[in-house]
Design the sequence.
């Protein structure tokens, strides 16, 4: 789980959305942010990361991976270079221009080490410009 | 939610377990760490925090409160002064002596601003001595 989390950052910052999607189980869910409609299954998740890794967005780790049972939680900052709102993979309104978003993600894993659900905790109050 | 999270830290570090329990709804659940049996309801939660705030354990925030929908996630370090294992409120084996534990908590809230579920993400790999 610890290796999968580090791979998530490395692959995201390399812009490799397809390799990130491969960290997930076929029937996984991505809920980003929590409260929005889940992305269900590999096709939706692949599309999500293909869009999310466009435009120079980078992730910066800000703490260790906290592992409990079959879950891993970790904090990070999203450095958004300046995506257009219509290009975002996220189903919430974002300001235009560069921004930094403080996020905590939780991954649940199956016995094969694949992510079955991702929940991203962040909202408008976590965006700084 | 942001104020409730800050109150949680302030009250914990003041050793006021009863006031922490009052942040919870009557039928709330505490799952600490994730994967162990939930503490269900106010009596169990009050007992949990009465024990947890004994022995000089202190919480140190290490990042912002990430708020999504009706949930708040946040990272911190638990500074354990040197509790005896039999005095712990946690249903997992801990080493003896002083230790620091990296934790991420997630709180779910109801419409009254009370915590309905707490999930604590940490495990043996997050303990340093």
Sequence:
């Amino acid at each position: 789980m610890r290796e999968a989390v580090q791979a998530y950052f490395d692959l995201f910052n390399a812009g490799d959305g397809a390799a990130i999607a491969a960290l997930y189980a076929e029937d996984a869910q991505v809920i980003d942010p929590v409260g929005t409609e889940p992305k269900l299954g590999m096709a939706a998740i692949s599309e999500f990361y293909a869009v999310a890794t466009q435009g120079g967005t980078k992730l910066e780790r800000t703490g260790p991976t906290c592992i409990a049972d079959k879950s891993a939680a970790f904090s990070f900052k999203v450095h958004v270079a300046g995506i257009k709102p219509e290009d975002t993979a996220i189903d919430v309104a974002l300001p235009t221009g560069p921004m930094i978003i403080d996020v905590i993600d939780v991954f649940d894993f199956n016995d094969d080490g694949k992510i079955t659900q991702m929940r991203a905790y962040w909202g408008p109050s976590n965006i700084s410009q």
User: Anything to note?
Assistant: Residues 2-128 of chain B form a domain with the Nuclear Transport Factor 2; Chain: A, fold (CATH 3.10.450.50). The helical segments of chain B are 2-13, 17-21, 41-52.
